[in-house]
Amino acid sequence: MQAFAPLEEGDPERVGPYRIVGRLGSGGMGRVYLARSPGGRATAVKVVHEELAEDAAFRRRFGREVAAARRVTGPFTAPVVDADPDAELPWLATAHVPGVPLGTAVAAHGVWPEWSVRALGSGLAEALEAIHRAHVVHRDLKPSNVLLAPDGPRVIDFGISVAADDTKLTTTGAVVGSPGYLPPEQLVGREVGPAGDVFALGVLLAYAATGTGPFGGGPAHGVNYRVVHEDPDLESLPDGLADVVARCLAKDPLRRPAVPEIIEELGRWVGADGTRGTFTAGRWLPAPVASEVTALRTAPLPNEAATATADADLPTVTAGPVPTAVLTARLDAPPERPSVAARLRGVTRQRRTAVLASAGTFVVLAVVAGLLLPRAFSGSSGSGTGTGSPTAAARHLAVRQQWSDDVDFRQPVLADGKVVGNQDGLLKALHADSGEAAWTYDDPSASSFEGVSDGLAVASSEKGTIHGVDLDSGKRVWSVDAKAHTAPGTTFHLYTRVVVADGTVYVNAMYDLPEGSERSGTYAVSALDAATGRLKWTRPIEHILSNALAVVDGVLYGGVRETDGSYFHAWDADTGDQLWRYHASASRHYAGELTAITVSDGTVYFGDSRTVLHAVDARRGTKLWTYEPDDGGVEEWLEPLVVFEGVVYGGTGGATSDYEPGTVRAVAADSGRHIWTEATEREPELHGQLDGAVLFSTKAGTLHAADARTGATAETRLSSGDPDAAVAGDRVYFDGGDGRLHEGRITLRDG
């Protein structure tokens, strides 16, 4: 068992005086490395991401916050021991805590008994007291920022998210933090103080005791809406915790308890053996968690820097086997990268993913292991065996590169022989067969490519404008402002989904109501003519409209969370008239939200954020069956769902983070009978089927081919991080982790 992953080529050998020996993880602010101080002390060093380092405001704020964080001392924090805010890439070092993240422990071993939750809460409250005493507000207290050690929990990453909140990354309206843990005052743009951390503590206690957040899961906008406007669901909490958690979650920060009050209330916890609790030898933890934490504590640390390839975005600490090393090969050298100072002067553009070249001649990347070498990597972890033709586990999966180009598309889309995506805020297209540039759309507001209709690319902007762009030339055909579908008395807020189908652009949108209204927002689904941009119809939705949307055979399908539960709707795609409404689930607090839809052979299949898959007659809206996994936990179904030869295939994953483990599931389309389940290292994204296998990629950088009958899986690596893959037939387009877009040809051959 190890709490670190090996280094990759391109990782630094040293940061300041610290020798880097392993990877601990990655997050929104930077990458975390395991290091040794000059005297040999194990240390965690966080190196800030380049895009933050390029922001002068961030550097100033980071320096102030680090200075404050260094004043934090307490038994339940990981103290800052060193930092250099003025380095080319700013960094800070904290004492290394070989602990298991709270989220990992709950996911692996289930909910905690009340006494363990009380112990957790008392330790976290004491950590917050130390943080607040130094005039620091954490602002991102969540399961991955709580490490479990035998002698109590540790709070990490304080003083960093605050600095990021004043940078260009949040000036566009984004909110730093994790949905469900952000207090209401932060979501509505008010000042956040220590009471905001108390709110997050209440969410953490509910999560440890029930396995879910008190405001449910699903799309972030829905979770945030419930945080601001609805009561938390505390029905499953033990009686001894319900009152203190409810007070921590008060909407008004002035009504939340002070941290010393929480320490006094929770500090009287008693261990499982009836004696007054003590943070020693892991006795405060549930037994299976204590065993894992203790074993991790005794795991040896590396003495030399490893060079094997590891996942690019591991959780803060991972308890488990060492990642399997893969082969590497040379790529042509990328252009020499200027210094951060030069880039600050505008010499060259930013990249979302940086590549560090060795000696300016070549770069060694794990991505090419499955692209340029004849060997492909395969493995099997399927739940069945099957007979007849060879399964995917007995076959080799390989991806051989066809071309790569110096573009950094996020989630490229294939359309009419072109690969379309956004780079540096501009919509661009490449020829799919060669990777050569086709065109660049000159309006930077059209930042999101939505789809294609009859040779027209449709894009949207954050301000609500919809653009129709000629797919051959990249020239604007039309543009329509959101005012075209914004009802009087409301103000456009955001699009939650845009779908292009059957010559029509369908938009799900949220609108703000005037100040003083009983509700802060309302929703509508609208239809625009894809050829002209003309508004065809608008249907107001008073309740929360799901971001999942599908159009098949003249019917528009979507989900609405109403006061008495969650409903699945079918509307006439030409008029917006409601055809039927299916009551998917009922709850006074959290009924789940629709997250994925597909239609096949007269049946609508849709998954929700409670891990329930529904099958409904597409004509009448009547229930055919529901499937709910019996392997525990609450996950949401991920788009897309795929139906192939009588089987529904879909991915599921945690509702709080894209980088949690997930699963791919196969369910009989006619009955809802479970066929197989395949666990994945990160949340999966399905891409269809090829030669009897279901293709899916994960944010860990791998492409998988699961045998459609058994789930037995072969895999190959595409990237050192999230590949943002798009698949068409046997071709895959993806971000190789080197800031370049690659096209590869997929082959599956018998063993």
Please tally the helical runs, counting DSSP H or I stretches of 4 or more residues.
12
Which word captures the global form?
Answer: globular
Which fold name is given in CATH as the topology of one domain?
Transferase(Phosphotransferase), domain 1
Q: How many whole angstroms does the radius of gyration measure?
A: 26 Å
Poorly predicted tracts of residues: 161-175, 304-393
Structural class: alpha+beta
Q: Which architecture of one domain would the CATH scheme give at its second level?
A: Orthogonal Bundle
Task: Give short descriptive properties of this protein.
single chain; 751 residues; alpha+beta; Transferase(Phosphotransferase), domain 1; Lipocalin; six-stranded antiparallel sheet; four-stranded antiparallel sheet; 43 strands; 15% helix; globular
Commentary on this structure:
- By secondary structure, this protein is an alpha+beta fold.
- Among the domains are: 49-74 and 91-297, Orthogonal Bundle (Transferase(Phosphotransferase), domain 1); 329-369, no CATH class; 377-408 and 630-751, Lipocalin (Beta Barrel).
- It is built from twelve helices and 43 strands.
- A six-stranded antiparallel beta sheet has the order 1-2-3-4-6-5. The chain has a four-stranded antiparallel beta sheet with strand order 12-43-42-41, with no helix packed on it. The chain has a four-stranded antiparallel beta sheet with strand order 13-14-15-16, with no helix packed on it.
- The two termini are 31 Å apart.
- Residues 161-175 and 304-393 have low confidence and may be disordered.
